[in-house]
Predict the structure.
Amino acid sequence: MYGYHGKTLKVDLTQRKIYEETFDEEFAKKYIGGVGFGFRWLYDTLPAKTDPLSPENKLIFATGPLCSISFLGSTGISVATKSPLTGLIADSDMRGRMGGVLKGTGYDALILEGKSSEPVYLQVTEHAVDIIEAKELWGKDIKETQEKILSKINDGEAVVASIGIAGENLVKYAAIASDLRNFAGRGGTGAVMGSKNLKAIVIRGKLKTPVADAERIKTLIKEVNYLIKTDGSCDTLSKYGTWNTTGPANFKGILPTKNFQKTTFEYIDKIDGDAMHNSIWVGKRTCPGCAIGCRHMVKVEKPYSVSPDLEGPQYESVAALGPLLFNGNPVVIAKANELCNLYGMDTISTGVIISFVMECIDRGVLTEDDLGFNLKWGEGEEILKAIETIAHREGIGDILAEGVKLASKKIGKGSENWAMHVKGSEVPMHDPRGKKGMGLAYATALKGADHESSMHDEAFEKENALPDLGLKEPMSRKQFDGKPFLVKTLQDYWGIMSDALPICKFPMIPPRPLTPARLVKLLNLVTGWNFTIEEFLQVGERTFNLGRLFDAREGISRSDDTLPRRFAEVLSEGGSAGENLDSDSLKTMLDEYYRLRGWDNEGRPYPETLKRLGLEVD
Ligand code: SF4
């Protein structure tokens, strides 16, 4: 095989058993890699109702064929598990080097199961796999953990992925970080790692994975990089990173503000791309092999210290720790983001749960006495205190660490009405009232509300956005018509396939140059296969359906494909004034979406759908 070693490393932390398994080319063609491999193995080995924080749960790090090269973030990795936040299947893509370096050990994937009796870290090299005692690392944040391990092994090319204190404390939205800056953020992968008493994974490997046509790969990479530099489509992303989205989101009235009570922010001029550049930005970073370089280094000295060593806040973190909390202070955003990174906590979920508490206080459902401190809109010190409280599960932080769905159930008094989640996953920073496709994507995403499972509506307002995928007609972001086909297609293409290959999602957004045709060509040049775009899309569809079957086995049905009630309220101001997304509109979109997916009225794939996709399930 080209692009694969055909080997998986399995580690049982209970028994301290280490063994290899193999897979063949037929399996590779059917699921490609990354999230495809992860979902297949989870479906096959995890009985229904397995406790996500029990030793039986699996934590799967899977590469794909493009990890064999270095191009637009292709050396990242997919992390898949059963989520402690939702009880459903989850994957989170981690950019950076971990996928490329894992390939360098001769393995395509790493499957962890069981639970160590004491804190350990795992070291994987080309020559050996070791489970190493890590008591002295327990209780350390992500930076200290990674620095201590690296100082021991003295290998500048090693990758360390670790959890912080939030993962140790089983915060249900704890993250895993590699190289301090790349996060598997959503769904609580860090809590699963913590439940196994596994503090870190160190990977060192330099083996090359053979590719089918190295020369033509080079030519294709050159062509795409030339377009990235010259066609203008990536210019604002390159200059501002994802901060290029903040001002436009406010202008369009889709920027969640005050726990989604509004969608425009009074202090936008303090936190938009230019403002962030002029206040906290000190430089940019790039993933391996990327000609765009959208990532930020930020630095603050007073009144808090924020180090440029960690990852600066991307759009989602700016919005979740800024307008969502009615906070217009870039310094507080930078510090809050750094705390989440050091503790290893998803910034979206953290922001949503803090804004939920702020609204509880506003409405008299919680008081300062319940919290032990106050938590008012926009108060920086109080926001930072709330993050500390959650990471350490102190006082009310113990409830907030469970996620907004469970927290609202425990707090009661009607607070479920402003708990912004879908299937237990906190809603990301795109209000779906102004972009209806995103609403349908939130309702149907396998892991609950997720902004990376489908491309966003704005990219399809011009005609011929992705003609290869049948997306030729222009569609307003506010319209309902056509959105079921859009979402279904993009869930399979963008949501799944980018994490199966893997490759960065940003250059795939039209009119950027990583088109479906070029992506499929790249896959074929790496593997020596002859995939068509249709066959490529079908892998995404197969994987998506497999994920749905997993979730259905856990009890998910049509009644769970829903949205928070707040989105039925009509927006009264801003660029989406007059818009809402109520249950009747969602029902109409869902009917069409299920029909296109080949699912019954409860959202279960029909037997003929499974047959068409070649999905063997029990
Ligand atoms: S566009 Fe940004 S996230 Fe994507 S590969 Fe490049 S630097 Fe990484």
User: Anything to note?
Assistant: The longest helix spans residues 533-553. Residues 479 and 505 are 24 Å apart (CA to CA).
